[in-house]
Write a structure and sequence with these properties.
Helix content: 25-40%
Oligomer: single chain
Bound molecules: zinc ion
Largest sheet: 6 strands, mixed
Number of helices: 9
Radius of gyration: 18 Å
Shape: globular
Length: 246
């Protein structure tokens, strides 16, 4: 499917060295007061940042960098063991003031455009559904985008990304400071899904940050870094569906 867009070329890109086709679709919010301000920054050579696209709140799509090239949006990141996330991803900036300037709901017209654009990208490059993720997923503790108001379920219902429902079991909640094999198992499961975390068995600051990132995406009503029974159940359910999704 062809999505109409307005060209706003950015000089901030290089080659996808070592990567033939992107296999991650990475979603951001702009975190600036206006779309114009964000587009100006993403196309300013001095800023040294970019993305492939920006989607305004009214659904207008701006194109900055051709998908075959490497845009600069992920920074220090990791997903499923890969760390050069810019080299292997297509990045979409979604206009929203963000947590700093007045985080608000994403309008329907904007999400419709993200879905159409995202589906076309996923189809073009055969991006696995589990690699349709947010900046916070690849940079826990450093980034909170696109955040807990982003309608991941709506995207998944439209065929973009993975969403599961799971009922809380009887697992004891795990929180900062906890130690032991249950913590190691939780960390291993998070790493299995893709998060950059080691199974140390200690529920340290990094673990809190990763659990928060997980919740921001998959259990949005409560983002507190505590791996309660529901959070653990959702993680297990996600891992269980990986066998049957691309
Ligand atoms: Zn970002």
């Amino acid at each position: 499917m062809q999505v109409k867009h307005i060209e706003r070329p950015s000089p901030n890109f290089d080659e996808r060295t070592g990567v033939d086709v992107p296999d991650i679709l990475l979603l951001h919010y702009t975190g600036m007061r206006t779309c114009a301000e964000a587009v100006a920054r993403l196309t300013d050579a001095a800023a040294r940042v970019s993305a492939h696209y920006t989607v305004d709140e009214d659904g207008t799509v701006y194109a900055h960098v051709p998908e075959r090239l490497r845009a600069w949006h992920a920074g220090v990141s990791s997903w499923r063991g890969a760390t050069d996330i810019n080299a292997r991803s297509v990045g979409i900036e979604i206009v929203n003031p963000g947590h700093e300037f007045g985080y608000r709901a994403f309008p329907d017209a904007q999400i419709d455009a993200v879905i159409a654009l995202g589906r076309a990208i996923v189809a073009r490059h055969r991006v696995p559904q589990r690699n349709v993720i947010g900046h916070s997923d690849v940079a826990p503790g450093r980034k909170t985008e696109p955040g807990e108001l982003f309608p991941w379920k709506r995207l998944a219902d439209a065929g973009l990304g993975i969403w599961v429902e799971a009922r809380a079991g009887s697992e004891a909640p795990l929180a900062g400071g906890a130690m032991g094999p249950q913590v190691a198992a939780l960390q291993a499961a998070l790493a299995d899904y893709g998060y950059g975390i080691d199974a140390t068995g200690a529920f340290d600051e990094r673990t809190v940050a990763v659990v928060e990132a997980f919740q921001r995406h998959f259990r949005q009503r409560q983002v507190d870094g505590v791996a309660d029974a529901e959070t653990q159940a959702i993680l297990q359910a996600l891992i269980a569906v990986l066998d049957r999704v691309a």
